[in-house]
Design a protein that fits this description.
heterodimer, A: 13 helices, elongated, B: mainly alpha
């Protein structure tokens, strides 16, 4: 009994630390877009992020958590020695957290998701045996790391192309924006709500039929679009800041839309990234409580709450500074462009979350921004970033794996 | 901290380019005061104005270097980087010509002959107008980027460039008339002064030429 409490306490400690790190660094990328385009102030962004990260984590974080918890390591092999999995998950958490800390100190761009997946694969392959890794599933995950930015980029490209055709290239962009933006709001709210209902909510015990799901999603989206339409109606052109095409006011109309996509982005981020912190924690708790691995005990909701809470604390303590810094650097992403990137990224991420695939939210968002750029939406894109993403891949996964192997053997010898 | 999202964005040349044409125009605009003072024989004022011209020309030069520095080859932009650099070069030449012409006039303490003084000032005005119209056109650059160089905004800029062309044609006509007027009185002038007078007219006229080339460069961007 003694040992179990130590395990859970350690796992919770590392898990909260990891969640804090995610809140401090990763959330900034999801929210900075909205701050940089001045659709939200920093305070509003933090409020939105806190609420929707938490909701995303609790309502839709279950699938990815379950993948991290039992999708990567083949638990069948460990029925005789469940403590190995406990050591391994503790080692993975500590490895990923340590690596993230070191990397952000050194200024290297890293992905939380890649660190934790690399760490789990590392301890399993070396500490237990190559057969302990479910390579098929890992292969799917790695493939999705390529597919997700590309998909987000493609969606963003199409969305921004439609914005250009329908609004920005017309004679009366302002009238057009006021007409079409509520439609975009509906689409954004509908997509994210629907995927969440269909794929995520089962984990919190809500199980609607297909038809009811659609009706609920349409209802929620209509409500949000209506509120948005009212807000848009009240926007008047600012004569002083204006040139003939009214783009300044057009961007303010898109600002309303961007508040919606920012919520969606925070939700999506919470739903996918909370697992990086609490997936291993959930595994440890499951084993510690039942003493076996095979137990199919459901994920306790309080674990999701813990993860969501940790992210919010990270956001409030440190993330706000990162949001401000990043926001200042991405002012080229005006609301008309930023929303396209956010909506594309959020949709891609929420679908991945629903399917239980851990992806990098940052890479997905970068892909979406590049997509807007391909539609001639961004004044200057520095293509060197693509190279940096590849480098961060090559470095992050082995680093996470190596550290977790070291910690695994330490834990194995030190812990009871 | 290296943030991947922040690093995607290179520094945009758009607002700096608009700022640069603004400086170039303000530089060219000084020629009105400069020639008014020199014709009136008020060389103290002319020197003050000339200092201002030099200051603005330097400012434009510095900004030009800055913009170039921030346009590495790794940038991906909706329009070719080379075209933007070319635009920058011709914008800069508006300020350069202004500095050249005021330098010659001040250096030789040149007196514009009274017989053509009024006509000359009118010619200078029209050249400054051309620079102003170039500024107005380039100021649409951010809106052009927003609209992805298509649609209504392109028509708007095309109209501005057309107007710029008309102003430039106008300066050409005025230049021809001015040269004819100078020819009529050149026998009464010191031959060296006469030669330099032709040169001053030529250089002043190049301000409108450069403004027109700004329009041509902008037009090239529209066709992408």
């Amino acid at each position: 009994m003694e040992a179990e409490i130590v395990y859970i306490a350690l796992a919770a400690l590392f898990g909260i630390f990891m969640a804090w790190g995610i809140g401090a660094n990763d959330v900034a990328n999801a929210m900075a877009t909205s701050v940089g385009s001045r659709a939200l102030t920093i305070k509003q962004a933090i409020l939105v992020a806190a609420v929707f990260e938490f909701l995303g984590a609790v309502l839709a974080g279950g699938e990815v958590t379950s993948t991290i918890r039992k999708g990567i390591v083949d638990a069948e092999l460990l029925t005789g020695s469940p403590e190995l999995l406990v050591y391994g998950m503790l080692a993975s958490l500590l490895a990923a957290a340590t690596w993230l800390l070191v990397a952000s100190r050194m200024g290297w761009p890293v992905s939380t998701t890649h660190s934790i997946v690399g760490a789990i694969v590392g301890f399993a392959a070396v500490g237990i045996g190559v057969d302990a890794v479910q390579w098929g599933k890992v292969g799917t995950i790695v493939m999705s790391w390529v597919v997700s930015p590309v998909t987000a980029g493609f969606i963003a490209f199409l969305i921004y192309l439609s914005v250009q055709r329908l609004i920005l290239q017309q004679d009366d962009p302002l009238t057009r924006a006021k007409r079409y933006v509520p439609v975009y709001i509906f689409l954004a709210a509908f997509t994210i709500t629907l995927v969440t209902i269909l794929k995520g909510l089962t984990h919190v015990g809500l199980n609607l039929g297909l038809r009811d799901s659609y009706i609920l999603a349409v209802g929620i989206a209509l409500g949000i679009a209506l509120v948005g339409a009212v807000a848009i109606r009240r926007i008047q052109p600012d004569r002083k800041a204006e040139k003939s095409q009214h783009f300044y006011t057009v961007e303010r109309v898109f600002g309303v839309l961007m508040i919606v996509t920012a919520c969606g982005m925070a939700f999506a981020h919470g739903s996918n990234d909370v697992a990086n912190a609490i997936g291993p924690l959930a595994a440890v708790i499951g084993i510690a409580q039942t003493g076996t691995i095979a137990a199919t005990s459901a994920l306790p909701t309080w674990v999701l709450v813990l993860g969501g809470g940790g992210i919010v604390i990270g956001l409030a303590t440190y993330g706000r500074h990162v949001i401000a810094t990043v926001g200042e650097k991405i002012t080229q992403l005006t609301p008309s462009r930023g929303f396209a990137a956010e909506l594309a990224a959020a949709t891609t991420i929420v679908i991945a979350s629903g399917t239980g695939i851990p992806i990098s939210t940052t890479h997905t968002l970068v892909g979406a921004v590049l997509g807007v750029g391909m539609a001639r939406g961004i004044e200057a894109i520095d293509l060197r970033v693509v190279g940096r993403i590849l480098v961060s891949w090559v470095v992050t996964i082995p680093a996470g794996a190596f550290l977790s192997i070291v910690f695994f053997f330490i834990f194995k010898n030190v812990l009871p | 901290m290296a943030n991947m999202l922040a690093n995607i964005f290179g520094s945009s040349p758009v607002i700096p380019l608009e700022k640069h044409i603004d400086i170039a125009y303000r530089c060219a605009k000084q020629l009105r005061g400069f020639f008014a003072a020199s014709i009136g024989g008020d060389w103290d004022t002319a020197i003050t104005v000339r200092n201002e011209i030099e200051r603005l020309e330097h400012e434009a030069d510095d900004l030009k270097k800055e913009i170039r520095l921030h346009l590495p080859k790794s940038l991906f932009m909706p329009v070719p980087r080379e075209d933007l650099l070319e635009l920058l070069v011709v914008q800069d030449k508006i300020a350069n010509r202004t500095k050249d012409v005021s330098g010659i006039v001040l250096g030789r303490k040149m007196q514009i002959p009274a017989a053509i003084a009024e006509q000359f000032l009118d010619f200078v005005d029209r050249n400054v107008d051309a620079a102003k119209q170039a500024r107005k056109s380039v100021r649409e650059l951010d809106e052009l980027f927003t609209s992805g160089f298509r649609g209504a905004e392109v028509d708007l800029v095309s109209a501005l460039i057309e107007e710029l062309d008309q102003i430039e044609t106008d300066t050409d006509d005025k230049q021809a008339l001015l040269r004819a007027a100078l020819f009529d009185i050149e026998a009464s002038l010191n031959p060296v002064d006469a030669v330099f007078m032709y040169q001053v007219i030529e250089l002043t006229g190049e301000i409108a030429d450069m403004a027109e080339r700004v329009g041509r460069r902008l037009e090239l961007l529209l066709s992408h």
